């Protein structure tokens, strides 16, 4: 996948995109992240990219021209353009899977009070958000988006079991994880995880995920319960038990 990122602060991305999973994906040729400094496309001798908003108000707005020129130079016409914005649609797993299927993405990082609306209208930009809160700029949300999309691209994750686990527990919060040593300061790993019984381990993990989701994100569990026909008899029993214990059947009705 090719991802073009338009930003005023390309140096923010390098420690993230060049390390860990993203760095390895780039080395393998699976992921190509190109950073474009919007300031390089200004025609002002002071390299200004922002100005006061028409109609008054606080803050500054990114001007249309430098962004237009950047998009034109990288050949963004016809490509899927995402604008990181607090007023955008909040990213979820369905959107991420859809984006992961694209061959190319263009991400625009806003700053100050946002960008000139004509950029968004002309380039048919999709406004997306990582949550209902405000950050200084779109760089951090863009990194979150890139990381979340990249791990869904085949070949990016080093451990195939990671993707498998996510498909098994899709729609639930992840179960607790343990590693060596088995006994640490008197705290022991649950016996079931060392039993070698894969079915028991699977059911224990599912039960833990169900309970965690019920406590922290009950709306997720309710949605998961609507797909109960995909579960086997023992899995449905655990689901029903959790719904009853947390009085979620009442909410479902």
Structure write-up:
With 253 residues, this protein is of the alpha/beta class. It folds into two domains: 2-150, SPOUT methyltransferase, trefoil knot domain (Alpha/beta knot), CATH 3.40.1280.10; 164-252, Trp Operon Repressor, Chain A (Orthogonal Bundle), CATH 1.10.1270.20. It has eleven helices and nine strands. The chain has helices spanning 14-17, 20-27, 64-73, 93-100, 117-122, 139-150, 160-168, 198-216, 218-225, 233-245, 249-252, and strands at residues 2-7, 32-37, 50-51, 61-62, 80-90, 104-109, 126-129, 183-184, 187-188. It has a five-stranded parallel beta sheet. Strand 8 (183-184) and strand 9 (187-188) form a beta hairpin. Helix 4 (93-100) crosses helix 6 (139-150), helix 8 (198-216) crosses helix 9 (218-225) and helix 8 runs parallel beside helix 10 (233-245). The protein is elongated, with a radius of gyration of 23 Å. The mean pLDDT is 92.
Oligomer: single chain
Q: Radius of gyration in whole Å, from Cα?
A: 23 Å
Counting DSSP E segments of at least 2 residues, the number of strands comes to 9
Largest beta sheet, briefly? Answer: 5 strands, parallel
Indicate the CATH topology of the largest domain: Alpha/beta knot
How much β-strand is present in the residues? 15-25%
Helical/strand content category: alpha/beta
Return the average pLDDT rounded to an integer: 92
**Strand order in space, largest sheet:** 2-1-6-5-7
Q: Judging from the principal axes of the Cα atoms, what is the shape?
A: elongated
Unreliable runs: none
Distance between the termini: 43 Å
Number of domains: 2
SSE sequence, one letter per element:
EHHEEEHEHEHEHHEEHHHH
Helix content: 25-40%
């Amino acid at each position: 996948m090719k991802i073009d990122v338009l930003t005023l602060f390309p140096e923010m991305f390098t420690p993230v995109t060049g390390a860990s999973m993203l760095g390895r994906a780039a080395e393998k040729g699976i992921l190509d992240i190109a950073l474009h400094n919007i300031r390089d496309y200004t025609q002002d001798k002071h390299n200004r990219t922002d100005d006061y908003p028409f109609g008054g108000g606080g803050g500054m707005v990114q001007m249309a021209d430098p962004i237009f020129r950047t998009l034109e130079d990288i050949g963004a016409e016809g490509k899927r353009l995402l604008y990181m914005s607090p007023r955008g649609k909040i990213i979820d797993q369905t959107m991420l899977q859809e984006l992961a299927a694209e061959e190319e993405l263009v991400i625009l990082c806003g700053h100050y009070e946002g960008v000139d609306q004509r950029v968004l209208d002309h380039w048919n930009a999709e406004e997306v958000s990582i949550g209902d809160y405000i950050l200084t700029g779109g760089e951090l949300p863009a990194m979150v988006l890139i990381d979340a999309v990249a791990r869904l691209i085949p070949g990016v994750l080093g451990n195939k079991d990671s993707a498998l686990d996510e498909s098994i527990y899709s729609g639930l919060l992840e179960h607790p994880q343990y590693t060596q040593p088995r006994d640490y300061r008197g705290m022991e790993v649950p016996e079931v995880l060392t039993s070698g019984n894969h079915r028991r381990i699977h059911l224990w993990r599912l039960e833990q995920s169900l309970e965690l989701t019920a406590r922290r994100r009950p709306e997720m569990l309710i949605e998961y319960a609507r797909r109960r026909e995909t579960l086997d008899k023992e899995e449905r029993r655990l689901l029903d038990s959790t719904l009853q214990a947390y009085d979620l059947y009442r909410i479902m009705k």
